[in-house]
Amino acid sequence: MYSDKVMDHFMHPRNMGEIENADAVGTVGNAKCGDIMRIFLKIENGIVVDAKFKTFGCGSAIATSSMATEMIIGRTIDEVLQLSNKAVAEALDGLPPQKMHCSLLAEQAVKAALKEYYEKHGLIDDSNRAIFAEAEDHGHDGE
Amino acid sequence: MTQENRKFVYLDNAATTRMRPEVLEAMLPYFTEHYGNPSSLYEVGRDAKKAVELAREKVARAIGADPSEIVFTGSGSESDNWAIKGVAQMFEKKGRHLVTSTIEHHAVLHSVEALVKRGWEATFVSVDDQGLVDPADVERAIRPDTVLVTIMMANNEIGTVQPVDEIGRICRAKGVWFHTDAVQAAGALPLDMKTLPVDLCSFSAHKICGPKGVGALYIRKGVRLPVFIDGGGQERRRRAGTENVPGIVGFGRAFELAAAEQPASAERLTKLRDAAIARILGGIPHVRLNGHPTKRLPGNANLSFEFIEGESLLLLLDMYGFACSSGSACTSGSLDPSHVLLAIGLKHEIAHGSLRVSFGRENGPDDIEPLYEALVKVVDRLREMSPLYDEFLKEEGKKN
């Protein structure tokens, strides 16, 4: 049911762990639903220079966390803000339909981290407000 | 990570079993040699008919029933559907209330729910934290318009064995028919319909080293069910359709062997199960056993590993060569974890981290240590990844 890419990222997760003194941390999901994703970002001069994750969840939750961190390292924060769950799923050669929410979770974890960073640095403006609002809407953080 | 030359260890015997060679051998002639239709009058037809009736005798003998009380079906689920919907239809003028439990197999739960949608009423008796139904609750749930009580003999997920004897006696005293799903109990527990107060009982061949696609329904003499499939005269006009002759022959042979070996097999598997549970609970922290410690199926161990999710656990165990199952949402195809684990009061996050190990006839004591060692590695690895475990460690740190 999983593609080889999903299995590869699940078996050999990239960037698993924590970043001490991360510039931004985003946590989404809840234990009740069976998945929690936490993404740590190191940001220098507007570029994500490092990203790490910790995830409680199924195989595809772990694989999408891993893939998402790979896709954002080296990118500018404005580029990272455009990350979509579809892009993460496509990079993994697709996910079973009932697992698409895992890719959404990865997108939201990244956006939750960025929101913290944008807020801290007064970067929220009309060009990105809508993106954060949308991410907030779909997120099922908390509990 | 992938283990080269790994040994494959099948520990999912509650899902299905590997067919025994004796069963396959018994079945083979009925594909190519005795291929006749049991309803035909010539010799190859008569051979097939004889084989079906011999298999019926074997199944009947295995459970202390009369051959006329056994009807072959296509699966345990079909047997459940027929028993429940059949009784409901039979008595729709008399009463429209059913009693069942919250931890039944979906074949039972969804059959009852389908009736509820069509106007019947149902009481779902709850279970305690070990998965036991209290017979007193069943007694209280029975109303003047109750037409059927259906409570499983043993649970497929957590293995808890229900007091069906007592429940059956209550039903009998109240004049209500009693159905039990014995799909998991067959071959695992002693079964004798002469002493067990059960009116209808479901069985499946593939759980006892027989073929898939064959089930049986025990219908006690005097209990009449509406015809399930209209058509020819097969199964005494109750379930039409040309018989699955090789499957039925295999079922007969499998049940004959399972019944003969039941006492020794139960003793052996109970030891194996208890040794595995003790090893895992003793060696890995933050694990709990789900279900009853002793009133459980001989081969069933169901454990919850805190801070990790069941599907990840299964996938990694598979890499080490172990096939098990889980009650996590991600393996059930819904967002909720298993209804059984929630019914015994587990929190969602604990239920998500459940693992069912079900031992069978090909497993032995040599499987325990490798399973334990693989579990230690897999659980460590997933906990290291888990933000829940981080939070737990931080909380612990604060306390100390």
Structure commentary:
The complex is a heterodimer of chains A (143) and B (400). With 143 residues, chain A is α+β, with helices and mostly antiparallel strands. Chain A has one domain: Alpha-Beta Complex (Sufe protein. Chain: A), CATH 3.90.1010.10. Helices cover 45% and strands 19% of the residues of chain A. Chain A contains six helices and three strands, in the order H-E-E-E-H-H-H-H-H. A three-stranded antiparallel beta sheet of chain A has the order 1-2-3. The mean pLDDT of chain A is 91. Chain B has 15 helices and twelve strands. Chain B has a seven-stranded mixed beta sheet with strand order 2-8-7-6-5-3-4, sandwiched between helices. In chain B, strands 9-10-12 form a three-stranded antiparallel beta sheet. Chain B has a two-stranded parallel ribbon with strand order 1-11. The chains are: A alpha+beta (143), B alpha/beta (400). Chains A and B meet through helix 1, strand 2, strand 3 and helix 2 of A and helix 10, helix 13 and helix 15 of B.
Short description:
The complex is a heterodimer of chains A (143) and B (400). Chain A has 143 residues and is of the alpha+beta class.
